[in-house]
Design brief:
By secondary structure, this protein is of the alpha+beta class. The protein is built from 13 helices and eleven strands. InterPro entries: Beta-lactam-related, Beta-lactam/transpept-like, Beta-lactamase/esterase.
């Protein structure tokens, strides 16, 4: 069931991974870890489909959802490095049409750290092909924000992709997917794609998603909505406010006709949604973050200057997040950083130390840690219930850091 290579130092990690597959908790998954430029763990196992008939391979691609945001953030950082984008400038400098209806003073950094107040579509997600870029960017361009830009943090679950992606297109002329492919993926041999070519569809694992019952979502501490505010400390007040405020439902709104199989559709895979539909292998993501965590260059090819990465992974916003249940989650310029909501069971991925990267709603997580020279990625194709979204990943990360601390 389990294939690949594991350095003897990390055999306890292999045991956790193997148990997740062999117990059938995960249908299919992959795990890769780089340490100081060396691939020390490269494991895969299980199946690409619900019927468990098609084996997961080393080069299996899977939709990693919001892990894509970290890849998009890498593209943004490269544009900053190259002097084409300034996070302190107004968005309207690069995208003039955006500066209307209360968005006139929105900064580039507001979009990148989820403070733009644009975490949803005012009139619902457009019922258009996912490949029709302007059908999504123009409504965002024209609408008013839900909150005053810069005033609060609210996770832009889907809209981040079109907002950040349009900035890339405006300053460079290429889409995010094309930019990443040309500037990073091909030169460095990273098997990750935002906008999948049809020739790669056969390598894809099916995403096995759950119906999202937004009216009855079960979260740790859900009963808190019935407690009066005067009984609650600040963090729990923030949690209650976000739980009852409705921003989660706006940010994660769906389209009635899509159903839970749309992530496996031709249209979704072919499209570029730079917040949510990147497809790649764990090995590819670990390599990307391994490069970033070890000077941002490899084999004579530089992605950016290390000081630009330092700028990008500095905390720009630290909550409370009005979408993510009032958590004190931290964001850099598109990268997810350490945050305290991880203490709430496995609802959130473990992010600690100097980790930067992103997690996805399907359970995938990828990050780098420049202090330890680590690049890490866990990918999977079965979405679990909300309270256990990141159970397998968190077990792996906890064991990884216990080993690293001992060594």
């Amino acid at each position: 069931m389990i294939n690949g290579h594991c350095d003897p130092r990390f055999l306890e990690i292999k045991e956790i991974f193997a148990q997740a597959i062999q117990s059938k908790y995960e249908v299919g998954a992959a795990l890769a870890i780089e340490h100081k430029g060396e691939l020390v763990v490269n494991l895969w196992g299980g199946y690409k489909d619900a019927a468990r008939t098609s084996s997961w391979e080393e080069d299996t691609l899977v939709n990693v959802w919001s892990v894509t945001k970290g890849v998009t953030a890498t593209c943004i950082a490269k544009l900053i490095n190259d002097g084409l984008l300034d996070p302190s400038e107004k968005v309207s400098k690069y995208w003039p049409e955006y500066g209307c209806n209360g968005k006139e003073h929105t900064k580039v950094s507001d979009i990148l750290c989820h403070r733009a107040g644009m975490f949803g579509f005012q009139n619902g997600i457009p019922e258009a092909s996912w490949q029709d870029w302007e059908k999504f960017t123009i409504p965002l361009e024209l609408q008013a924000p839900y909150r005053e830009p810069g005033s609060s943090q609210g996770y832009h679950a889907l809209t981040f992709g079109w907002l950040a992606g349009e900035l890339v297109r405006r300053v460079d002329g290429r889409t995010v997917g094309r930019f990443f492919k040309d500037e990073i993926a091909i030169p460095l041999g990273i098997d990750f794609h935002i906008g999948l070519e049809e020739s790669n569809f056969a390598r894809c694992a099916d995403m096995l998603m759950l119906e999202m019952d937004t009216d009855n979502i079960k979260l740790p501490g859900n009963a808190i909505r019935y407690l009066p505010d005067f009984l609650l400390p600040r963090k729990l007040k923030n949690f209650k406010s976000a739980l009852t405020g409705g921003n989660f439902l706006i940010a994660f709104q769906g389209r009635p006709g899509d159903g839970i199989t749309y992530p496996n559709s031709f249209d979704w895979r072919k499209a570029e949604v730079p917040s949510a539909n990147g497809h790649g292998s764990a090995k590819a993501l670990a390599k990307l973050y391994g490069i970033l965590s070890n000077g941002c260059s490899r084999d004579g090819i530089s992605i950016m200057r290390p000081e630009i990465l330092d700028q990008s992974i500095a905390p720009y916003s630290s909550g409370p997040d009005t979408v993510l249940f009032g958590s004190d989650i931290q964001f850099g310029l598109g990268f997810e950083l350490a945050h305290s909501i991880a203490s709430m069971s496995s609802l959130s991925p473990t992010f600690m130390n100097k980790m930067f990267g992103h997690a996805g709603v399907g359970g995938a997580v990828a990050f780098g840690d420049p202090d330890l020279g680590v690049g890490y990625a866990f990918t999977c194709n079965k979405q679990h219930q909300t309270k256990n979204l990141y159970k397998t990943n968190n077990q792996l990360v906890d064991k990884l850091y216990s080993i690293m601390q001992i060594s």
